[in-house]
C-alpha cells in the first residue's frame, strides 16, 4: 500500500500491529476515524490510554480488575467453595457468557509447556494451592483446554493437592481434545461445565 500521508501510514501500522487486524482492515478503521469528528478519535485514544494505565489484576484470582479484587471475587452471591480453574482471562469471559457457573475463578496465566520454557513456577499455581488451603474450597473445576499440555498441568495441580480434602473435576469432553476453550460455543461450553466429571490423576 502506498499512502500520500505519513500520518495515515503510521496510524495504519499501529492498528495492523493488533492481533487479527490486517492492513486492509487497519486502513478502513483509520479512514473511518479521519471522517469522524475529532472528539470521536479523542475519546478512543483516551479510553485506551486510561485502560492501559489503570488496569489491574485481581490479587485473588488474577482476572483483570479495576481494583485490588475483581467484581466477581467481591460478589457475595458467588459460591466461594467452588473454583473454576482456567488458563487465560478470556476463558473467564467465555464461561461467564454461558451463565452456567456461579462460583469463583482462578486464572493460571497459561499451562505447563516445557518446550516453550513454561514451568509451574511461571504460573499462578502456588496461589491456587493457598486458596484451597485457606478459603474452604471444596471443588476445583479444571476448565483447561484438553491438550497434552493441559493434561500435564492438571496432573501437576492434582499432585500438589493430593493431601487436601478438595474434589477435582474436569469439564465434559464436549470441548474436543486438542481444542481451545475460547473457541467453544456458549451452549457446548455450558453443557461441558454442567456435565463435568471427577478428575483422577493417572
Task: Kindly describe this structure.
By secondary structure, the protein is α/β, with parallel strands linked by helices. It folds into 2 domains: 49 residues, RecR Domain 1 (Helicase, Ruva Protein, domain 3), CATH 1.10.8; 127 residues, Dna Topoisomerase Vi A Subunit, Chain: A, domain 2 (3-Layer(aba) Sandwich). Helices cover 41% and strands 13% of the residues. The protein contains 7 helices and 7 strands. The strands form 2 sheets. It has a 5-stranded mixed beta sheet. A two-stranded antiparallel ribbon has the order 1-2. Helix 1 packs across helix 2. The N and C termini lie far apart (55 Å). About 2% of the residues have low confidence.
Key features?
alpha/beta, 7 strands, two-stranded antiparallel ribbon, 5-stranded mixed sheet, Helicase, Ruva Protein, domain 3, elongated
Describe how the helices and strands are arranged:
Blueprint: H1 6-16, H2 23-35, H3 38-54, E1 56-57, E2 64-65, E3 79-86, H4 89-98, E4 103-107, H5 125-134, E5 139-142, H6 148-160, E6 167-170, H7 186-194, E7 197-198
Parallel strand pairs: 3-4, 3-5, 5-6
Antiparallel strand pairs: 1-2, 6-7
Helix pairs in contact: 1-2, 4-7
Integer tally of domains:
2
Q: What is the makeup of the main sheet?
A: 5 strands, mixed
Contiguous runs where pLDDT drops below 50 for at least 5 residues = 175-179
Helix content: 40-55%
Per DSSP, the total helix count is: 7
SSE class: alpha/beta
- Give the C-level CATH assignment of the largest domain: Alpha Beta
Mean pLDDT: 88
The CATH architecture classification of the largest domain is: 3-Layer(aba) Sandwich
Shape, per Cα inertia axes = elongated
| Strand segment tally | 7
Order of helices and strands: HHHEEEHEHEHEHE
Terminal CA distance: 55 Å
Oligomer type:
single chain
Strand order in the largest sheet: 4-3-5-6-7
Beta-strand residue fraction: 5-15%
Amino acid at each position: 500500500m502506498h499512502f500520500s500521508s505519513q500520518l495515515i501510514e503510521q496510524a495504519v501500522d499501529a492498528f495492523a500491529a493488533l492481533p487479527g487486524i490486517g492492513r486492509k482492515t487497519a486502513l478502513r478503521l483509520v479512514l473511518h476515524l479521519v471522517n469522524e469528528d475529532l472528539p470521536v478519535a479523542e475519546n478512543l485514544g483516551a479510553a485506551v490510554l486510561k485502560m492501559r494505565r489503570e488496569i489491574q489484576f485481581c490479587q485473588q484470582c488474577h482476572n483483570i480488575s479495576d481494583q485490588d479484587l475483581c467484581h466477581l471475587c467481591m460478589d457475595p452471591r458467588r459460591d466461594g467453595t467452588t473454583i473454576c480453574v482456567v488458563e487465560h482471562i478470556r476463558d473467564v469471559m467465555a464461561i461467564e457468557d454461558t451463565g452456567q457457573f456461579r462460583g469463583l475463578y482462578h486464572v493460571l496465566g497459561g499451562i505447563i509447556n516445557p518446550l516453550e520454557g513454561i514451568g509451574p513456577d511461571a504460573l499462578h499455581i502456588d496461589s491456587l494451592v493457598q486458596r484451597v488451603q485457606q478459603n474452604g474450597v471444596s471443588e476445583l473445576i479444571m476448565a483447561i483446554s484438553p491438550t497434552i499440555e493441559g493434561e500435564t498441568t492438571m496432573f501437576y495441580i492434582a499432585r500438589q493437592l493430593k493431601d487436601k480434602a478438595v474434589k477435582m473435576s474436569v469439564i465434559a469432553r464436549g470441548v474436543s481434545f486438542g481444542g481451545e476453550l475460547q473457541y467453544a460455543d456458549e451452549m457446548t461450553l455450558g453443557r461441558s461445565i454442567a456435565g463435568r466429571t471427577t478428575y483422577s490423576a493417572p
